Amino acid sequence: MSLGKNIASRRKSQNFSQEDIATLVGVSRQAVSKWEKDLSSPSTENIIRLAEILRVSVEELTGGRPAAAGRDREDRSVYRVSDSRYLWLLIKDRLFIRLANPVLIFLYLEAWQTMYQLAYIGMLKRNLLWLSIYSFGILLFILEGAAAVYIAARRRVILGGELLELSEEGIVVVDMSYRKKADIHWREVKRVKESRHYYFLILEGRRFLPIPRQDMTEAQESLLKKHARRVRGIKLRIVIAAFWIFVTACGTFAVGRCMVNLNGKLAWKIQEAKTDKKVRLKEKNFYKTGLSGIMDRVQTKVELMPHLMTENVDIIFKKDGEIESIYAFIYGYDMDYKLRTTYLVSYEPQTDKRMLIHTQDWTGVDKSEQKEYDPDNDMEILFQMAGNINVQDVVRQWDEERYGFYYKGIASWGYLGAADGIRYIDQKGKVTLPDDYSSVEVNGPSLSIYCPDKKEERTPIRFVYAPSETM
Fold first, then answer.
1. Where are the beta strands (DSSP E) in 92-222?
2. Is the pLDDT of residue 65 over 60?
3. Three-state secondary structure call for residue 63
4. Can you point out the beta strands (E) in 128-267?
5. Taking the complete model, does pTM exceed 0.70, yes or no?
6. For the chain: N or C, fewer Cβ within 10 A?
């Protein structure tokens, strides 16, 4: 078998790619490809390095071809840990060291406890403050760990492709030119941790040396165990990982439980985010905006159903028209007149400068529990009445500080007449005064303008909707 075929065969048997061999030898991938195709031959130095990498003697690799000898020693091996692999092993090692820190464990437990309290009972200011403190402490640990990784990476003892030699005196690193690069005495090895695939040597000066077990000869392992007596298992990592996974799972479950089925404050907040919308009133003067202006602002945030009905609209406003409060409960029906959504519209500028629209979905609710649609109480009737009434002219007769605009749907007023504030209004806005005392019972969609501070002293003006053909 030619040298090139021998190199290719040995490389594949050890699961190396041409890129791996090129990196470890210190040549290009194209050079390795030419060697394997017998288009060129490696130098004597590269043959020796190839033999060490492929764990064979020079004679085996060359098929008896003469080459410099004396390099295939039992206490020396090629270091085959790449830069990325080294960094990953370093991060894992530093990570588990910090995960075992009792201060970090305390901060993590307290952070989850605070998040649970925040999700369950709220108390935003207090709990958010403590959560910020705990999070800052955890962040400091993360930054310290990142700094430790950076320092250890800059102090790397050996690079991939260099030779690692263990002796009675210590560890010797030989560079790719076969010159001694570093000499580490056994007393500089602070501790050794052992895993299934690696020995991790922790050296003085925050240096870190992972050695793959499969690359170590029996002689090297014997020397390591002889001089580094603090070799210990890595089972603690499993315990630490299990603890952190358990705490994280429990914390996630507890906080997550507060997010569903209204089990906690967080669930209510999520529900509010789904059902509540807020919008500012562009015009706060009721004389100018009217009911239609208010509902136009509602529609900028919520898509209203095609058919609306209400039995409760109450708007309080000042003498100059400034709106003090709004309360309206509206039923929304689809094209088939089935109740789909209800809307609660409220406005309290003392607590929030925005108008709140709370929606509730009625899809799937038993029909017996739903409010049936009444065409005689369609909200379009209220819009017609409100649009045809000059509220400012109506309240001018009282000269009070506050007034109210109240709609209660279809109401029965008995036999009250003009003396009791009854006014008939048709679909065109024509207002008709009945007799002082009606001879027929008065009922229908009713809109009242009243004085909320003097309900007993001031008789409200009650507009009762009566289409012209029934008047």
1. 163-166, 170-174, 180-185, 189-194, 198-203, 207-212
2. no
3. coil
4. 163-166, 170-174, 180-185, 189-194, 198-203, 207-212, 231-232
5. no
6. N
